[in-house]
Write a structure and sequence with these properties.
Order of helices and strands: EEEEEEEEH
Shape: flat
Largest sheet: 3 strands, antiparallel
Structural class: mainly beta
Length: 152
């Protein structure tokens, strides 16, 4: 029995969320978990990056949603008093737009860049690699296939 039309449509978004119609798909990739909704109003995608409620709203938490730098312990007087600067959330959001049938070709490489960025390695000029290169493939893999790990 859904009685909260906005809150009831928010869900945890840990990697991505999308909306689409017959012609287009909008995909949003995120590197930090947050709340999101794609169905409060048709054609809108909404992400909740940071929320704050400076007074208890009386809906069960028993305290305001005021995330700050410091908080007093929940013992004795002044339990859970928030003070200091408000928290700052930093992260990345990547947007991709394309036809629904082709959308994965756009967002999948972006997802790889966001979650598995290239890791540079450096060595001195005198260092020699045991195996400078290796490939077990006779030809390139299709764009939608990846080898994540390989064991001998």
């Amino acid at each position: 029995n859904q009685t909260e039309p906005v809150a009831g449509n928010y869900f945890p978004i840990t990697s991505s969320i999308f909306i689409r119609d017959k012609k287009s798909q909008l995909t949003l990739l995120t590197d930090a978990a947050q709340a999101g909704s794609g169905c409060v109003r048709d054609g809108e995608l909404e992400m909740m990056v940071h929320r704050a409620c400076l007074k208890d709203d009386g809906r069960g938490v028993g305290e305001p949603l005021n995330e700050t730098e410091f908080i007093t312990p929940y013992v004795g007087d002044n339990q859970g008093q928030h003070y200091g600067r408000g928290l700052v959330i930093r992260g990345k959001h990547l947007l991709a737009v394309g036809a629904p049938a082709e959308a994965a070709k756009i967002w999948r490489p972006l997802q790889d860049q966001l979650y598995m960025p290239l890791m540079p390695f450096f060595a001195t000029n005198s260092a020699k690699l045991a195996k400078p290169s290796f490939s077990a493939l006779a030809q390139a893999l299709p764009a939608n296939v990846q080898i994540v790990s390989l064991q001998q």
